[in-house]
Amino acid sequence: AASMSVVEHVREMASAGLHSNVRLLSGLLLTMSGNNPELFSPSQKYQLLVYHADSLFHDKEYRNAVSKYTMALQQKKALSKTSKVRPSTGNAASTPQSQCLPSEIEVKYKMAECYTMLKQDKDAIAILDGIPSRQRTPKINMMLANLYKKAGQERSSVTSYKEVLRQCPLALDAILGLLSLSVKGAEVASMTINVIQSIPNLDWLSVWIKAYAFVHTGDNTRAINTICSLEKKSLLRDNVDLLGSLADLYFRAGDNKNSILKFEQAQMLDPYLIKGMDVYGYLLAREGRLEDVENLGCRLFNISDQHAEPWVVSGCHSFYSKRYSRALYLGAKAIQLNSNSVQALLLKGAALRNMGRVQEAIIHFREAIRLAPCRLDCYEGLIECYLASNSIREAMVMANNVYKTLGANAQTLTLLATVCLEDPVTQEKAKTLLDKALTQRPDYIKAVVKKAELLSREQKYEDGIALLRNALANQSDCVLHRILGDFLVAVNEYQEAMDQYSIALSLDPNDQKSLEGMQKMEKEESPTDATQEEDVDDMEGSGEEGDLEGSDSEAAQWADQEQWFGMQ
């Protein structure tokens, strides 16, 4: 056998995965080629450039890789010009040469990958768009579909996803892509029906498609029922993805207790689970379980710090400890890792809002709504921004829109009522809406809280106490216990009020308002001389500042970090 050329050695090492070795050798050979252009043929130069670029790509040096891939494609152009002119002298000699040339389409795909890593989506789309559609491989169509979707070019995105399914009818993520772009479930199912019918044990797939069609139309109740029916099938029992979806759906439906249960189940089954853990962390933080949130954050950072989730969980811990500038920085870091992270956008938006930067916050909530048009909490965040900046009219328009698009359910009714409560003119309307919501879901906490607020304004304390006791019959919730405490104080039932505040604090030791309620009562019971009382207040003030905000120097340090992450 003839001895191998040096370029063949490079190719062998590349296919053997010896990237660092390829990088050194190809770098030296390219310099030789530059100093003596006759040394290698155009096809050899093309190969050297591609292998060199591949090794740069492997080292995550994306900008450098792109420039070498671009040079490689220019070589390829020169190559196809020269090869056309040369008369073929016996095909045998020329075929092995062309067979082992790295594919031009693969090079373009790698370039697109570099561009997405560099956050240059337009360039990525341009390079893949330039490939004639007949030559597009499934992974090119999948990447294009995702890029189009992100850029808001929905029709092109749908076409590309359908192309993936035509080539690979079991591409489930492409199916989810189509459903998220409001393609009807029936149409999507028809594209996979032949495979479903020809393969045993796949009969669940049409139900699976139906379930996620409900998810993407925002029909949480039917989505939950459909996924539960899949989950009960013995063959799909204990599937982590299904449990994660269920947890997320319970969360969207405002059923936090069940959501936490399902997340815990999923986590028990897969200790390395990352997806959805940001929502789980947020729920734990909302319940005041800050120690659990901290542990979850540490665990996730051990699994991967290249995902948004651990940063979001850690940010929720900061946010609920009232350290907003730190939460802001962690949210920004999460968005940098994954610009599609809805939870990161909500965290950063809430932090900005609480720091008084309402206009910036609004931008983040709008982006969250664009990414998750069926998630009520994105709208809630935006509406809170409008109310914080006294734009009651804009809040009203938004709440009415949500009510129309997501349908009249306990959640949308309550959201609309919340806005109505802000305007003296619409108090009666708020009352009607809340009663409707509570008829549909008597235990929906947000509705109970708002109804109690209304009753408190009207000083109907007995009604309020009855409402809260009824709501607490089947569930325990810090805020409900605390409000019940406030109402009991109003009717002079001090001992029982004290019990309610204690229960509230046992559920969430950080609940400031329950502490205040207790302290107020203690003061009323033991009226000491005025001077001492002032002291207590002073202590409280300084303690709160010190604990929750962190020292000024720390805030300054985070402010530096913020600039570093281009958030100013």
UniProtKB/TrEMBL annotation:
Signal peptide: none annotated. Residues 531-552 have a biased composition (Acidic residues). It is found in: Cytoplasm, Cytoskeleton, Spindle; Nucleus. Pathway: Protein modification; protein ubiquitination. TPR repeats lie at residues 342-375, 478-511. V-shaped homodimer. The mammalian APC/C is composed at least of 14 distinct subunits ANAPC1, ANAPC2, CDC27/APC3, ANAPC4, ANAPC5, CDC16/APC6, ANAPC7, CDC23/APC8, ANAPC10, ANAPC11, CDC26/APC12, ANAPC13, ANAPC15 and ANAPC16 that assemble into a complex of at least 19 chains with a combined molecular mass of around 1.2 MDa; APC/C interacts with FZR1 and FBXO5. Belongs to the APC7 family. This is Anaphase-promoting complex subunit 7. It comes from Oceanodroma tethys. The gene is Anapc7.
